[in-house]
Amino acid sequence: MKKSFGREYKKEFPFEEKYLPLSHGSYGAYPKALQPIIDQYRQRAEQHPDRWNRFEVRELIEDNLKRAATLLRCDPKDLVFDLNASTAANNILRSFPFEEGDKILCYQTAYVNCDKTLEFLQNYKKVELVRINLSYPIEDDDVIRLTREAIERENAKESGKIRLCMLDVITSVPGVCKPYKSLVKLLKEYDILSLVDGAHSLGHVELNLTELDPDFFFANCHKWLFTPRGCTVLYVAKRNQGFIHPTVINYAFQHHPDPTDGSTFKEEHLPGVVDVIPFLCVGPALDYRESIGGEEAICEYNHQLAVEGGKLVANMLGTQVMENSTKTLTANMVNIELPIPSTVKLSDYEITRFFMKKSIFEHNSILNVYKNNGKWWVRLCSQIYLELDDFRLAGEIIIKLLKELEQ
């Protein structure tokens, strides 16, 4: 009989006994059940480095890509591994053949590293960034409307049209879901390539890349899927594989004038001399998740806990959860408004650091605090090793720190 999710599962992760992990979405965590597998692989790698690196690891990588492809519902031939989401974004954006004057559509809620990569392209490839401002909480219909209006507005100009759009499945800050399926469909109407940042998606929400059919997609496995850091899957549709090369070029590089020529795509993205063991833990992580109830049960518990926990903390603070009328913003991360008075004379950076350092070093937890649309919020993550009382503890920590901040 499987035990119920909650604090009992905290023992299955290598956390400090009194640590209250409220930000699983930042760095993830893997269960102790994976440690013997990790140790076994590490031992094999050192027993015969040549056999391991030249032959054995390739087959193991492909096996784990096949497991990831089953979860993503796509062809494993369209998947490769990368170290993290930022690297995957750079592989796509820095190797794609943008021309001077090309436009990239993006949102101000893009993850900072990805956004900085766009800034890099703006300076080095002379592309133009078309930013859409989203003031959360916002309705999904308004996200789609603002996107369509931006496309129509740019297409009406004499300058170049939009070549690519970068969008999220779930944004990092604020930690909310985007109507990514409708957005990808909208982009196809205008012949705009879609780059979908799914950093928080795998192990968090149900995905079907065959049905979605994005041009590019990447997702971390170490955030919500329970693999060690860092492990990311990068998907490139066959029609675009000739365009994409890793940021670190290897022996297999070939220039492909034809974007559909993916003959070297897999070989070019084989990892060099790096720690590939996190890549080999996708299968074991999925086995563990299946043993405790499976994807649907895990996501259902986490979502319900996020909704109930967010409501509890908001009631304790006398504020609100960041949500829209159709309740589509919250998956397994919930954002709660913080009642920080305007009389606090610290900079935004100082307020953010205050909550982060105090929560870590004085309360053995973590509070991700940020400013959005003129208000202060905290992002809390649910997970199978947490329960409602942990959110109550989070609320108590927040109340203590608010009092300290006012003083």
Provide a descriptive summary of the structure in words.
- The longest helix is centred in the first third of the chain and has 24 residues, at 49-72.
- The protein has two domains: 7-30 and 294-406, Aspartate Aminotransferase, domain 1; 38-287, Aspartate Aminotransferase, domain 2, CATH 3.40.640.
- α2 runs antiparallel to α3 (49-72), α4 (85-95) runs parallel beside α5 and α12 (348-361) packs across α13.
- By secondary structure, the chain is of the alpha/beta class.
- Strands 1-7-6-5-4-2-3 form a seven-stranded mixed sheet, with helices on both faces. A three-stranded antiparallel sheet has the order 8-10-9.
- It contains 13 helices and ten strands.
Topology:
Elements: H1 24-27, H2 35-47, H3 49-72, E1 79-82, H4 85-95, E2 103-107, H5 112-124, E3 128-132, H6 140-155, E4 162-168, H7 180-189, E5 193-197, H8 209-212, E6 216-220, E7 232-236, H9 265-268, H10 282-291, H11 295-317, E8 333-338, H12 348-361, E9 368-372, E10 375-381, H13 388-406
Parallel strand pairs: 2-3, 2-4, 4-5, 5-6
Antiparallel strand pairs: 1-7, 6-7, 8-10, 9-10
Helix pairs in contact: 2-3, 4-5, 11-13, 12-13
Domain Aminotransferase class V: 59-338
Pfam families: Aminotran_5 (PF00266)
Keywords: Pyridoxal phosphate
How far apart are the first and last residues' alpha carbons, in Å? 51 Å
Major β-sheet annotation: 7 strands, mixed
Q: Which CATH class of the largest domain applies here?
A: Alpha Beta
Radius of gyration: 22 Å
From the 3D structure, determine the CATH topology of the largest domain: Aspartate Aminotransferase, domain 2
Number of domains: 2
Write down the secondary-structure element order.
HHHEHEHEHEHEHEEHHHEHEEH
CATH superfamily of the largest domain, please? Answer: Type I PLP-dependent aspartate aminotransferase-like (Major domain)
Helix tally? 13
Q: Any low-confidence stretches, pLDDT <50, length ≥5?
A: none
Shape: globular
Main sheet: which strands, in order across? 1-7-6-5-4-2-3
Number of strands: 10
Overall mean pLDDT: 96
Structural class: alpha/beta
Helix content: 40-55%
CATH architecture of the largest domain: 3-Layer(aba) Sandwich
> How big a fraction of the residues is strand?
5-15%
